[in-house]
């Protein structure tokens, strides 16, 4: 059984979807702890499912490195097989990434390498793109530059704004994340040598 730690910053919609999937006895992974870098609403999902949680508030540390050291210590205490970033709005210090990669993954609301960074949906609209997407990647020392584990296109519809487009991307992100975690757990996907897995279907709504 693959054990998973999930790190969040906000509402935790991806976390909720993963917890729902993991509640199925046939799902080959279990979330064992949820961590946050601030008082995050998504911690309520952990409580609802009886999952332990911890908080390492970024603002309580003098430097990002000190914050990262404490975060790493919390993760080491739980010894998860996999770390999932679920809307963690904070770049991890190199020491944390080095300690866990390639066993640390993230979702991104764009078809990488298109539109990396914190505003992937906004940037796609600003570029006049007719389609964007969702990706699941291994976290490395760059910004959304790690190996791609899965991705799928999502159409940009006439009249879309950042909110409506993001609302259509989010379910694709959740589905891809759950599938990637399942494939890692079953050994179908080897993080030591990840291969890009593109899904050519374009989701319109």
Automatic annotation (TrEMBL):
Domain Formyl transferase N-terminal: 4-181
Annotated site residues (Raises pKa of active site His) in this chain: 144
E.C. number(s) listed in UniProt: 2.1.2.2
Catalytic activity: N(1)-(5-phospho-beta-D-ribosyl)glycinamide + (6R)-10-formyltetrahydrofolate = N(2)-formyl-N(1)-(5-phospho-beta-D-ribosyl)glycinamide + (6S)-5,6,7,8-tetrahydrofolate + H(+)
PANTHER family given in the database record: PHOSPHORIBOSYLGLYCINAMIDE FORMYLTRANSFERASE
EC category: transferase
Purpose: Catalyzes the transfer of a formyl group from 10-formyltetrahydrofolate to 5-phospho-ribosyl-glycinamide (GAR), producing 5-phospho-ribosyl-N-formylglycinamide (FGAR) and tetrahydrofolate.
Amino-acid positions noted as binding (6R)-10-formyltetrahydrofolate in the UniProt annotation, renumbered to this chain: 64, 89-92, 106
Source organism superkingdom: Bacteria
Record key words, sorted: Purine biosynthesis, Transferase
GO BP terms: 'de novo' IMP biosynthetic process
GO CC aspect terms: cytosol
Pathway: Purine metabolism; IMP biosynthesis via de novo pathway; N(2)-formyl-N(1)-(5-phospho-D-ribosyl)glycinamide from N(1)-(5-phospho-D-ribosyl)glycinamide (10-formyl THF route): step 1/1
InterPro entries associated with the record: Formyl_transf_N, Formyl_transf_N_sf, GART
Coiled coil: none
Active site, renumbered: 108
UniProt similarity note: Belongs to the GART family.
Binding of N(1)-(5-phospho-beta-D-ribosyl)glycinamide, residues: 12-14
SUPFAM superfamilies in alphabetical order: Formyltransferase
GO MF entry, a single one: phosphoribosylglycinamide formyltransferase activity
Protein name (Swiss-Prot/TrEMBL): Phosphoribosylglycinamide formyltransferase
């Amino acid at each position: 059984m693959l054990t998973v730690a999930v790190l969040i910053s906000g509402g935790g919609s991806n976390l909720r979807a993963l917890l729902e999937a993991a509640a199925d006895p046939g799902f080959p992974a279990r979330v064992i702890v949820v961590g946050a870098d601030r008082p995050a609403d998504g911690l309520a999902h952990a409580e609802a499912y009886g999952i332990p949680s911890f908080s390492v508030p970024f603002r309580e540390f003098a430097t990002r490195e000190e914050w990262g050291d404490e975060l790493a210590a919390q993760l080491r205490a739980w010894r998860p097989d996999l770390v999932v970033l679920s809307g963690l709005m904070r770049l991890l210090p190199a020491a944390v990434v080095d300690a866990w990669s390639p066993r640390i993954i993230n979702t991104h609301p764009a078809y990488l390498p298109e539109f990396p960074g914190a505003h992937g949906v906004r940037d796609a609209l600003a570029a006049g793109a007719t389609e964007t997407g969702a990706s699941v990647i291994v976290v490395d020392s760059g910004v959304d530059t790690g190996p791609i584990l899965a991705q799928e296109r999502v159409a940009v519809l006439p009249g879309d704004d950042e909110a409506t487009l993001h609302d259509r991307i989010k379910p694709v992100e959740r589905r891809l994340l759950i599938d990637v975690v399942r494939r890692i757990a079953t050994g179908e996907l080897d993080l030591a040598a990840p291969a890009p897995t593109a899904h050519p279907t374009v989701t319109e709504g």
